[in-house]
Write a structure and sequence with these properties.
Pfam family, one: Transket_pyr
Radius of gyration: 27 Å
Keywords: Isoprene biosynthesis, Magnesium, Metal-binding, Thiamine biosynthesis, Thiamine pyrophosphate, Transferase
InterPro entries: Dxylulose-5-P_synthase (IPR005477), THDP-binding (IPR029061), Transketo_C/PFOR_II (IPR009014), Transketolase-like_Pyr-bd (IPR005475), Transketolase_BS (IPR020826), Transketolase_C (IPR033248)
Number of helices: 25
Function: Catalyzes the acyloin condensation reaction between C atoms 2 and 3 of pyruvate and glyceraldehyde 3-phosphate to yield 1-deoxy-D-xylulose-5-phosphate (DXP).
Largest sheet: 7 strands, mixed
Family: Belongs to the transketolase family. DXPS subfamily.
Distance between the termini: 48 Å
Shape: globular
CATH class of the largest domain: Alpha Beta
């Protein structure tokens, strides 16, 4: 790729060491160039836009003040980390971001020593950073600083509060930076508040404070318990003067802020003055998502990941989808509203993904019956269980990968009591450019062992509507429906709502030479492969759509076991413990011995790329299924 010539300072920064050679007066210009670089690159190669623009100044200030990579910076939700990538040796290859074999979509230590931890899912930064801080102390690395950067809604996750609780009770010098881009929280104003900020971040104040603390310890007047009492008194005094209280000071974590997250000079001053302070501390920084690009500032949700756009006009380049099948998520959203109008017990629940899963359709029409609980998947499930216990019928929509975080809640708070909760697992299977932290690879395998749980996956949009209708009928108990990211296959997607017999699959096509068994929309690819193979070989191939993984269609599996010597299973999920494993278990339990070839996601974490590329890489795209059929027929 031809390198831009307009980035006079940025093009000289190959690592944070180069950044730290610049005078502080040059940092605003670095920020301007970094912001322009992100805008330019993402206008052509889509990615997470608004979040990274919002932390440009904070990113520059952190790398300017802290000795990275020796000092550890733990990012929460890698949406924010594009500027970090560009400053840490990946500037010239940033155009490969999210592409197959290119830069990873989120920070990962496998890519760079500057990426200290995996951060695809939210709310883990405080816990991970505390672990690093404790490890540094135990190893005698007194000069190593550890910083957790949390924001973009991550503080609503339960893990963040678990981490905070441990931070308050474990000896550490951790710095937590709260990147607050929620404009409902007012900015701090007024002379007394600014005076207190300056006082509590000044080197003189803190030298005096630390020196006095050491003397009091030495004289036996102060111990750890009395120190915590003094901190609580100090926090109470500050709260009285500022006429506000916050949870962090209540947990004995020193609080600084709020500060303007877009004033890079002020940020560097504050970070410099608090970085060597002893004990846990939190810097509250106000930022704005999409900062520096007006359309993104005005519509942060749309510009979270806007796709390709014109960087000069701000016009998003949206493909013409006229005549194309709808997105599965939109079929879900419209069908949920249709069902909710018929059944007043239905409510919707989503953990911070109303537009991503199309729950916003119900929210707009019936706001009192839809709940966005924030980034809190475990709570979303238990909250749904509580409503179900009292007679409501929640449709709890969680991305497949994110539902992993609520596994215990599914078992203990829904399945044991056989509560009527419908789990709609969006983004099931390989999701594409977001990579291994977001692939919905494991749900079939991790849900299958749970008693009382029905597990289904629709072949197409009609089947999704029918399964949703079936799931809300009386006394169904826990019911999981998994479907992929992207479009289906039917343009005429709106069909009558009809009940599906629980545990009953479908024979899509009869055959005598080979049986292909599928579950979910990947069955359409298998059907195309079967047509090709039959046309070229003249063989007769049967196709079975299981539709339900649990309860599994035993009558259908008996038929397959009795009539076929060769079986191919295809699933958009992990092979270990998935649908193919269920079929093998059934065959073994009933004395059938067909040769079974299983196609699906292998036993490794799959990188990022387009869904088409990744299915080919894993060996279960249409071509791979076709070649597996031909190979099996030739045995």
């Amino acid at each position: 790729m031809k390198e831009e010539t307009s980035y006079e300072l940025l093009n000289k920064i190959d690592s944070p060491d180069d950044l730290r050679q610049l005078p502080v007066e040059a940092l605003p210009r670095v920020c301007a160039e970094l912001r322009d670089k992100i805008i330019d690159e993402l206008s052509r190669n889509p990615g997470h836009f608004g979040s990274s623009l919002g932390v440009v100044e904070l990113t520059v200030a952190i790398h300017y003040i802290f000795n990275t990579p020796y000092d550890r910076i733990v990012w929460d939700v890698g949406h924010q980390a594009y500027g970090h990538k560009i400053l840490t040796g990946r500037r010239d290859i940033f155009y490969t971001n999210r592409k197959l074999n290119g830069l990873c979509p989120f920070p990962t230590p496998t890519e760079s020593e500057y990426d200290t931890f995996t951060c695809g899912h939210a709310s883990n930064s405080i816990s991970a950073a505390l672990g690093m801080a404790v490890a540094a102390a135990r190893k005698g690395e007194e000069n190593r600083r550890v910083v957790a950067v949390i924001g973009d809604g991550s503080m609503s996750g339960g893990l963040a509060f678990e981490g905070l609780n441990n931070v308050s009770s474990t000896p550490n010098d951790l710095l937590i930076i709260l990147n607050d881009n929620n404009m409902a929280i007012d900015r701090s104003v007024g002379g007394m508040k600014q005076y207190l900020l300056n006082l509590h971040t000044s080197e003189g104040y803190n030298r005096l404070r630390n020196a006095l603390s050491k003397k009091l310890y030495r004289w036996g007047i102060l111990n750890d318990e009395r120190r915590k009492s003094l901190i609580r008194f100090n926090n109470s005094l500050k709260s009285m003067l500022m006429q506000q209280q916050n949870i962090f000071e209540g947990m004995n974590i020193r609080y600084f802020g709020p500060v303007d997250g877009h004033d890079v000079t002020a940020l560097t001053r504050v970070l410099k003055e608090i970085k060597d302070m002893k004990g846990p501390k939190l810097l509250h920084v106000h930022t704005r998502k999409g900062k520096g690009f007006k359309p993104a500032e005005e519509a942060a949700t749309v510009w979270h990941a806007p796709g390709i756009f014109d960087k000069e006009t701000g016009e998003r380049i949206v493909a013409d989808t006229t005549g194309m099948p709808p997105l599965f998520q939109d079929v879900f959203g419209n069908t949920l509203l249709e069902l909710a109008r018929q059944n007043d017990k239905i409510v919707g629940v989503t953990p911070a993904m109303p537009s991503g899963c199309s729950m916003n359709i119900l929210m707009k029409a019936m706001p009192e019956r839809a709940f966005d609980v924030g980034i809190a998947e475990g709570h979303a499930v238990t909250f749904s269980g509580g409503m179900a216990k009292e007679g409501l019928l929640p449709f709890c929509n969680v991305y497949s990968s994110f539902m992993q975080r609520a596994y215990d809640n599914i078992i203990h708070d829904v399945a044991i009591l056989k509560l009527n909760v419908v789990f709609c697992l969006d983004r099931a299977g390989l999701v594409g450019e977001d990579g291994p932290t977001h692939h919905g690879a494991f749900d079939l395998a991790y849900l299958r062992p749970i008693p009382n749980l029905i597990i289904a996956s629709p072949y197409d949009e009609h089947e999704l509507r029918r399964l949703m209708y079936t799931a809300q009928l009386p006394d169904r108990g826990p019911f999981a429906i998994r479907y992929p990211r992207g479009r289906g296959v039917l343009t005429d997607w709106h069909c009558p709502l009809e009940e599906v017999e629980i545990g009953k699959g479908r024979k899509m096509k009869s055959g005598t030479d080979l049986a292909v068994v599928t579950i979910g929309p990947i069955g359409n690819d298998a059907a195309a492969a079967i047509r090709r193979a039959e046309k070229e070989t003249g063989c007769s191939i049967a196709h079975y759509d299981l539709r339900f993984l649990k309860p599994i269609d035993e009558e259908m599996l008996h038929e397959i076991g009795r009539n076929f010597r060769h079986v191919i299973t295809v699933e958009d999920g992990v092979l270990k413990g998935g649908m193919g494993s269920a079929l093998l278990e059934f065959m073994a339990d009933h004395g059938y011995t067909p040769a079974v070839k299983r196609l699906g996601i292998p036993d490794r974490f799959i990188q990022h790329g387009t869904v088409k590329e990744l299915r080919a890489l894993c060996g279960f795209d249409e071509d791979s299924i076709y070649h597996a059929i031909i190979h099996t027929l030739n045995l």
